[in-house]
Write a structure and sequence with these properties.
Blueprint: H1 6-14, E1 19-27, E2 33-38, E3 43-45, E4 48-50, E5 55-58, E6 71-77, E7 83-84, E8 87-88, H2 89-94, E9 102-111, E10 114-132, E11 135-142, E12 155-156, E13 162-164, E14 170-172, E15 182-183
Antiparallel strand pairs: 1-2, 1-9, 3-4, 5-6, 6-11, 7-8, 9-10, 10-11, 12-15, 13-14
């Protein structure tokens, strides 16, 4: 469930036709942040101005109920005038400046030409899929991306290798030098040597 302000709730409940747009907040790994509006003019909301410079199209957010990664594809059309940190946007993509950045998608609503509020739709880490010509395509993966990692099955891990600290954390014992992870059904060509 999305956190939505009371002004947006009243607006959605009382109007049949909505004026809205997408706002993109891109925070790069170097700490700089950029604010882009997918609208026909600059948008000011929350004391911040979102530029309408680049043309951004997004795909549908794919949310999955199983342990997987929620994703979104974003296509950015730009020219030499669109710069990030003094570098043209496409060059920034090629240099890896956008890799690992956090892109947050907001939906903003307008009444009588004034923005009445916004809410966060999606947030995730960016990966540059392609960049060339006048456009770049970004894959945005939700922060839960580690949930889709494959966990090895049938692994034996003796409990003596772990210890519980006084603050409740569980850590690997530093004094244990002989414990190893062994598949419960090892292959015939695997030779295990145990010291002890």
């Amino acid at each position: 469930m999305k956190a939505v302000s009371q002004a947006i709730v009243e607006y959605l409940n009382t109007n049949k036709h909505f004026e809205c747009c997408d706002l993109y907040q891109l925070e790069l790994a170097n700490g700089s942040a950029y604010y882009i509006a997918d609208y026909d003019k600059d948008v000011t909301v929350g004391g911040r101005t979102w530029d309408r410079g680049m043309i951004i199209q997004r795909g549908q957010v794919k949310a999955v109920g199983e342990p997987s990664v929620d994703t979104m594809t974003v296509t950015v059309a730009c020219d030499r005038e669109d710069v990030f940190g003094g570098i043209p946007f496409l060059q920034a993509c090629h240099n890896g400046l956008l890799s690992g950045g956090i892109l947050t998608l907001y939906r903003a609503f307008f009444a009588d030409g004034q923005c009445i509020g916004r809410y966060a739709v999606f947030s995730g880490r960016t990966e540059v899929q392609s960049a060339g010509g006048l456009r770049a395509q970004l894959n945005v993966k939700a922060e839960t991306q580690g949930l889709n990692q494959q966990v090895p099955l049938r692994i034996f891990a003796p409990q003596s290798a772990y210890k519980k600290t006084t603050d409740g954390d569980i850590v690997v014992s530093e004094s244990d030098t002989v414990t190893m992870l062994v598949p419960l059904k090892p292959s015939n060509n695997v030779l295990l040597r145990l010291n002890g």
